[in-house]
Amino acid sequence: MARLQLKNVNKRWGSFVGVDNFDLDIADQEFLVLLGPSGCGKTTTMRMIAGLEEVSEGEIWLGDRMVNNLEPKDRDISMVFQSYGLYPNLTVYENIRFPLRVRLVPKEQHDEMVMRAARMVELEDFLDRRPAELSGGQRQRVALGRAIVRKPTVFLMDEPLSNLDAKLRVSTRAQIKNLQSKLKTTTVYVTHDQIEAMTLADRVVVMNKGRIQQVGTPTEIYDTPANVFVASFIGSPAMNLVQGRLEKGVFQGQGIRVIGLRADKSGNVTLGFRAEDAEIVKTDGNISAPIYSIELLGEASMVTWRLGGALVSVRANKGFRAEIEDVVQADIPADACHLFDTETGERL
Ligand SMILES: Nc1ncnc2c1ncn2[C@@H]1O[C@H](COP(=O)(O)OP(=O)(O)OP(=O)(O)O)[C@@H](O)[C@H]1O
């Protein structure tokens, strides 16, 4: 069993709070992704799980053991870093074997274990090379091979793809997903890339400023963001967010009006909707305002308005033509709208 629990974990340096009350139960075999902007506390959380950073307050449990006071090497966790962390003077074979030597795995088992890991990361033909003789993608596969060689109970991966070019990132991402589904090892994966998070995760933890903002499946996070931060962080383009007033289910903002909203509250609210849920119309649109810009994307165009200070975008069909300042309308179905409290940012 490799259930991993973080119970009210805090990390403070003096008065600065790096991780604030992180409380989460990660299931055996789960692929959990920590997602958030730079500086939100993802790496610090990982380092506390690995034992590389002391916990200021709270407990970390691995299976039925509280591991706060265990050395990193005694936690049975493997970590893969963005920077690969390979030994330059060792061959691929020796790099992958390294954890077996550290952990005093009997020598006669090494060859079989290294070969098995090398096969899984497709490095059988490179075993005699040194890291300098490999591409970035191959180096990262060595790091992965080294992480899986001794079947740890938990994998920690800290932005393992961020040094790879876009194409390699996509294929290595698929490989990581495939590896994890074969190995069924509980995995915590850190990224600031929401596409990576959405494609890899069983569940995503969205963090900001040291705090968990939302925990959910990729679909839950995308379809029902818990607050304005999550709404604006997930999705490409990000969710459109407009300020206005809500009265008896009618939202009114500058250049935008939506009726039939299911909400009891009245007062200042933020209305959110995704570009893909709205469409350009000729009449009776919820938005009716002069446009701020129009961008040709090839297969479609993106029409953007400036509504009360917020930029709001909707896709238009390929043949759509308009000039800046032309009044253009868009239809937004009420059931595709999200409402947030403008003051707290929380979902209504
Ligand atoms: N040793 C330290 N002393 C003081 N503050 C630190 C220390 N290490 C990290 N921090 C601060 O803690 C916060 C969280 O850092 P962390 O590295 O966990 O962020 P992150 O989400 O992983 O960011 P990135 O994506 O840029 O790696 C940051 O504001 C950082 O400056």
TrEMBL record:
Alphabetized UniProt keyword annotations: ATP-binding, Cell membrane, Membrane, Nucleotide-binding, Translocase, Transport
Q: Does the keyword Metal-binding apply?
A: no
What molecular function terms (GO) are annotated for this protein?
A: ABC-type transporter activity; ATP binding; ATP hydrolysis activity
List the CDD domains.
ABC_MalK_N (cd03301)
The positions making up the signal sequence are: none
Source taxon at top rank: Bacteria
Describe the location of the ABC transporter domain by residue ranges: 4-234
UniProt record, GO biological process: carbohydrate transport
Similarity-based family: Belongs to the ABC transporter superfamily.
**Protein name per Swiss-Prot or TrEMBL:** sn-glycerol-3-phosphate ABC transporter ATP-binding protein UgpC
Native species: Maritimibacter fusiformis
